[in-house]
Design a protein that fits this description.
With 246 residues, the chain is an all-alpha fold. The chain is 65% helix and 2% strand. The protein has a two-stranded antiparallel ribbon with strand order 1-2. Strand 1 (189-190) and strand 2 (193-194) form a beta hairpin. The mean pLDDT is 85.
Length: 246
């Protein structure tokens, strides 16, 4: 029980702390693999670990300024030769485009009143719930077994990286809805979210993940990001076109 509590406390700590412009780990990993359909990397494992690494700040004292940028271009990602750094750049690129699309499509408005004031956290759970049954999360868990040398930066210690990898493995092993259910059983509240909301979400998340409109949004969001990888449309052009349509 203590082991479960430590894992799920880390999970909720992480997801309740992520700001509006961030995607959750499984979404980043899934989109990372989509990127690899179009571009080769020397080390896929390092690339995917780099693709989720910027959010390690929630498990350490690393500041957002050291892990995130808002001006990353596709050309910069493609030209980067280091697989781990390439993954980190893609993470930043995806965060910016995803949040722009969420705001343009007014997706947060759809989550009221179910979100109970935690719209960004709930949407990330919904996206990852949808993907959890559509991709091989076990492979991502295997990739995440141990820290790699590129992660030892920003004064991070082994214990920081072990905590990060423990969180990622635990998160990828169980669907978000089940995580909410287990958390509601072992805590009264976590970071201001009462256990009864977690319990409600455990039943609402699967329904929302399969809601026709939200399912369409998740597919659309992923598709639009993938389209930028093919160079058919730049990140800015996708955003500008959506704005003119609304």
């Amino acid at each position: 029980m203590r082991y479960l509590l430590s894992i799920y406390s880390l999970i909720l700590c992480f997801l309740c702390a992520i700001p509006l412009e961030s995607a959750a780990p499984l979404t980043h990993l899934y989109i990372g693999d989509l990127f690899l359909k179009y571009y080769n990397v020397e080390d896929r494992k390092a690339f995917l670990l780099g693709n989720i690494y910027p959010d390690i700040r929630y498990m350490s004292n690393v500041s957002r300024a050291n892990t995130h940028r808002t001006d990353v271009s596709l050309d910069e990602i493609i030209k980067e030769e280091d697989s781990f750094k390439k993954g980190c750049l893609l993470h930043c690129y995806v965060d910016v485009l995803r949040e722009e699309l969420v705001e343009i499509l007014h997706i947060y408005d759809m989550l009221e009143p179910v979100d109970r004031g935690y719209k960004s956290q709930l949407l990330k759970f919904i996206e990852d719930e949808y993907l959890s049954s559509r991709c091989q999360t076990a492979e991502y868990v295997q990739i995440n077994t141990a820290p790699i040398k590129q992660e030892y930066q920003h004064n991070l210690q082994l214990i920081d990286l072990q905590k990060w990898h423990l969180f990622i493995s635990g998160y990828l092993t169980i669907k978000p809805s089940m995580q909410m259910y287990l958390l509601s059983m072992i805590t009264k509240e976590m970071f201001g979210i009462p256990s009864h909301i977690l319990y409600e979400w455990s039943y609402e998340i699967p329904k929302l993940a399969n809601d026709p409109y939200l399912e369409k949004y998740t597919k659309y969001m992923i598709n639009q990001i993938e389209r930028t990888f093919t160079r058919r449309k730049s990140i800015n052009l996708v955003i500008r076109e959506k704005r003119t349509q609304l």
